[in-house]
Amino acid sequence: MDRESPRGPAFPVADAVASLGRERKLRLDCGVELGPYAVGYQTYGRLAPDRNNAILICHALTGDQYVATDHPITGKPGWWIDMIGPGRPLDTDRYFVICANVLGGCMGSTGPKDIDPATGKPWGLSFPVITIGDMVRAQAMLLDHLGIDQLFCVIGGSMGGMQVLQWASAYPARVFAAICIAASARHSAQNIAFNEVGRQAIMADPEWRGGDYHSHGVKPAAGLAVARMAAHITYLSEAALHRKFGRNLQDRDQLSFGFEADFQVESYLRHQGSSFVERFDANSYLYITRAMDYFDLAAEHGGVLANAFKDTRTRYCIVSFTSDWLFPTRESKELVRALNGVAANVSFVEIETDKGHDAFLLDEPQFEATIRGFLAGAAEHRGLGR
Amino acid sequence: MDRESPRGPAFPVADAVASLGRERKLRLDCGVELGPYAVGYQTYGRLAPDRNNAILICHALTGDQYVATDHPITGKPGWWIDMIGPGRPLDTDRYFVICANVLGGCMGSTGPKDIDPATGKPWGLSFPVITIGDMVRAQAMLLDHLGIDQLFCVIGGSMGGMQVLQWASAYPARVFAAICIAASARHSAQNIAFNEVGRQAIMADPEWRGGDYHSHGVKPAAGLAVARMAAHITYLSEAALHRKFGRNLQDRDQLSFGFEADFQVESYLRHQGSSFVERFDANSYLYITRAMDYFDLAAEHGGVLANAFKDTRTRYCIVSFTSDWLFPTRESKELVRALNGVAANVSFVEIETDKGHDAFLLDEPQFEATIRGFLAGAAEHRGLGR
């Protein structure tokens, strides 16, 4: 169901929802067997006849599958539109690009806002707690459904990078190349702490109703907005905030001596909070942050990260940003050390930028060149024609 | 009203509330004339006959005057007990130490939870928005009341350090020495952003009731706890969080696959939030964070920070901590440059520690030695006998 239009992108787009887990259920890390379940996804470009040109994009906490087309709720351009298309790093003339909404999400994949078939009511907090491993298993079942044995590449930033690592570790034969951007093999104490603040903000909102707000026709918008505001600060660097806003006042010449948004940075944050609640489900925020907190690849392999990648034949590209304090370069280097420890084929690039964690979503020429170059090299090794 | 007891400290303590602004009102930066108003304070040690041995401690955002005695609500030891007493850096055998609750606070100084004499009801949000300058003017009136013309030293960390700078700038003749710890001459965009998250968390709590919760006999405990949790993360370094908690689990051997506090860091943060609301007023949190946001000493002096200290004769000690990302060393250095620009007498010490912003409240031997040494040198110059 291609939906090309005069205004649409210059490449084939499919927007679909797969119903999976009917015959074979999805066994979650918590022990629950989930099925059937839905996975909403988009694809760009065309799958090659020998099915060897697929790139899977794994999205971040608040991302979704609308990578290269306008978002159905906000109407905004896809979140990685500059990376995808003819001649762009993820070249749709060459690759078949897939992005699926994560399990637990709210954009077409089964999550806490959906109806639990067992009760006929929204899952709410009775939805099972999921992990990065569960998200990746659900994606693997989508690839089975699409008839793709091996991905040419799996790529993602932030929580997307966690999924990339999980993919390479859990399905080594299915991943030819892996690009892990601004991520880590385990969530740090500070990051767990920030996620916990966001969750507490949501759960403190009386409209959350113990997670059952969908049944009551309300939503914890104020709590979710606060969660987003706190998180958003961590996505930017102090330098970027200073450069963009400094102490500039918003729509006024002098301080108001009140609690309105005197400063541009306050106005910006409030906007980030209020626009986020229009497109995101509060319970999904709880579940997905929890999945990030639980992620610890070494712990799943006897405490030794290298064991997660034993005998790997995947080609890795690890990218970090100098001003990213949420997933600092140090954590990428730990990952590189572990990969070196198993003699993996690894490129590591630390990109100099003041844009912070979100640099992977922004116009950053050195980053684009890195992805383009790594993919070109990997494609050559994979024998993908121009 | 000394309240020494067998369990009490080994030095004279006075716990008092001054009623000020009866004859001469306090002119606030917002234009309001406030009076009468109360200032709650404690003193330790004895004022010398020539009144030249007074040290004023300025407390931080959530601090108060219970510096060296047990807190009347929590029962916990004073927040700087290790720094104050016979033989300690702020030696009570030698100095007369004063600490006053800031204007807008909730521990005895007039603030939004008090009764507005004009209406007979709690001020709530009709309390005037105050500034660091207003806090310092209120303290200056307290010194007038105590008959102290010149402070031997004014000292404080974080927002306390802002007050120290304001003191030295606004009352140059009244400050012999000034110790500014982990602070800045202006609040950064990132810090304004974190404060705004806290305020939005409070104001999102329906029990806040537009600031009028005291009239309704409720309080926005959930919102204030979230504000505290978010802020608390910024007081620690990532390294300290990792060292203290890492990914250790709380009271369990394995993940719960739920939203309880699985991790120690979550449990710790929740405790920080819930204990804070027992002792702090939510509206005070709004007003005091706003005062910090508004602080910009250069802006008040034609955009040139050095102008704030023109002709200063005060001896300065500026202290920063390597792992403090809320008030990074860079900002202390800007201050030192400005002071150097007016040929001020300045010592600058950056202390190597992984304890983050809160290092000034924790056992940090090099920090203690710095304060001790600077005060000893200043005392010699001031002609204070041993």
Structure description:
- The structure is a homodimer of 386-residue chains.
- In chain A, the strands form three sheets. An eight-stranded mixed sheet of chain A has the order 1-4-6-5-9-10-11-12, with helices on both faces. A two-stranded antiparallel ribbon of chain A has the order 2-3.
- With 386 residues, chain A is an alpha/beta fold.
- In chain A, helix 3 runs antiparallel to helix 5, helix 3 runs antiparallel to helix 8 (282-294) and helix 5 crosses helix 7.
- The model of chain A is unreliable at 1-6 (pLDDT under 50).
- The two termini of chain A are 26 Å apart.
- The first copy, chain A, folds into two domains: 13-187 and 297-382, 3-Layer(aba) Sandwich (Rossmann fold); 191-290, Rna Polymerase Sigma Factor, Chain: A (Orthogonal Bundle), CATH 1.10.1740.
- Chain A has helices at 132-146, 159-170, 189-204, 213-216, 221-235, 238-244, 264-279, 282-294, 329-341, 365-382; strands spanning 13-20, 26-27, 33-34, 37-44, 54-58, 96-100, 115-116, 121-122, 151-157, 175-181, 315-321, 345-351.
- The interface between A and B is large, with 57 and 57 residues.
Task: Give the secondary structure arrangement, pairings included.
The structure is a homodimer of 386-residue chains.
Chain A: E1 13-20, E2 26-27, E3 33-34, E4 37-44, E5 54-58, E6 96-100, E7 115-116, E8 121-122, H1 132-146, E9 151-157, H2 159-170, E10 175-181, H3 189-204, H4 213-216, H5 221-235, H6 238-244, H7 264-279, H8 282-294, E11 315-321, H9 329-341, E12 345-351, H10 365-382
Parallel strand pairs in A: 5-6, 5-9, 9-10, 10-11, 11-12
Antiparallel strand pairs in A: 1-4, 2-3, 4-6, 7-8
Helix pairs in contact in A: 1-2, 3-5, 3-8, 5-7
